[in-house]
Amino acid sequence: MSGTSEAVGTTQIQPSTSARLPWRPPDERRVLQLVLATVWLLDGVLQLQPIMFTRQFGADMLAPTAHGNPSPLAHSVLWVSRVISNHSVGTDAAFAAIQILLAFGIAWRPTVKAALAASVLWAALVWWFGEGLGGVISTAASTVGGAPGAVLIYGVLAVLLWPVDRAGQSPSSTAARAVGEHAARLIWVVLWGVLACFALLGANRSADGLHDLVAGMSSGEPPWLAGLDRHAANVLDHRGLSVSITLAVVLGIIALSAYMPRGPARALTAVAVVLCVVVWVFGQNFGEIFSGGATDLNTGPILALVALAYWRRGPEPTPASEGRRDLAMEAA
Amino acid sequence: MAHPTWLAYTFAVVMVAVSLYCVAWLIAARRRNGQNHVDVNVAHVAMGLGMAGTLVPRLNLLPDGVWEALFIAIALWFSGQGVRFVTGRVGGGIGAGSHGVTHYLIHLVMALAMLYMYLAALPAATGSGMSMTAPTGTAANFVGLPLLFVGTLLASAVWQLDGLSRYAPSRSSLVAAPAAMDTSSAGPRGSWEHSGKSQGENSRGEEPDSPEPGSCAQPSLAPRLEMGCHIAMCITMGYMLILML
Q: Is the pTM here over 0.90, yes or no?
């Protein structure tokens, strides 16, 4: 576990005799870390739903993710799903406890590094064994449906919110603070570029692919949401290809926004957040949380959180302008 | 769907423990004459016992109608306190050491969430299982509301945990070095190591629990345990609301 001193990146000594951390209110990155902790906490509590303690969790929710994947991957997913099915109560309680502890660890400042590192490891395990790599290899991936898997984005976010500063005095965004400007831009381009590619994969290109995806989600949802699904499905009927191409183009432009000036980049980040919300509501039905079998919120809110981590900051005040402001205040 | 009884009992035991602690807190506070947070602890006692009775019906002390009336009263109280706080701030009548409006808002949300649980759910006939089930009919159209409650409650729990970090022991204090005394000019820092002030910090940069001179606010009694109770309550309430989605 990281000690306090390591977590803050410098040796901190209290001038007083009190052996406490010097308290600072949360900054932008800390707020995003706390939102990530809230998401992990929600996932942990969702893991305590009654259905998760039954064989159904392993057999009906995890095992199907093996479908279409290469044999070694499919076998490993099926083996894990069998183990979970046979020991559903113990394994599910453990999964819930792990996710709740991850949330606690991120929220508790002295353990934030350890918890973020553990969350990356846990995300990798769940992405492999619980999500079958999000259907990426099986070409069943769909951007609207939640590819490449929410838990993978959790891992990416944990890296982007790592509490160190590598980008110098004035990083362009919160994400750049942890990994540096170049790496942050590369991650953004790859993430949104991959999403653009997934929008054009397999069934997503067919005339009824998106219609079928949205229409199929209405089962088990509350009446108002099922009605919303039916309307959205009607709009998408026979328009799958054109909507997918449009989505891919928008996602591609968002990917390139990492190399744009601050104004257009901010506008496209806002577009990305709005797009995430629209997809989350119409394409992911709030992560199907109302149907009683959700294990997470799906990719919509997590991608929005990533986009917020990339919100371009305003120019840092220069010493000269600070001096002018001080003089103006004195004059006033 | 059948729910693990042990889980309901675990949450119920935690809630009873929280309620008993809050009762003890109220007694201790009364002896010390006029502590802050009496309203919060009264609300926690009611909510804790209410949730324990919902999780394990044999622990239910009062009829549902009484609970509903109680939580309406608590919601009205915190609404009134919130309004009073906001109007007081506008008129400059409340000191900077007082709580922010979020303090009242979160307890209002908790009271409304309890009310929702009683009004929207169908009570089970008898038995030791949880007496809450998913809402049906018209109530099923309002599942967005409990989701909003869940998000708010879990965010509040996480926020409190972050606040608890101010009580974390500093390992570096054991290896004091005079050169490191100036924390304002040190090198790269973690996310909470910036020097700006924001809403949670008072004018002297001290932790919010320290009251401003001249304000009527008093230091809270056992703030860590109180925050722990709040966290436990938020998570339990969030869990119960998720079962109702």
A: no
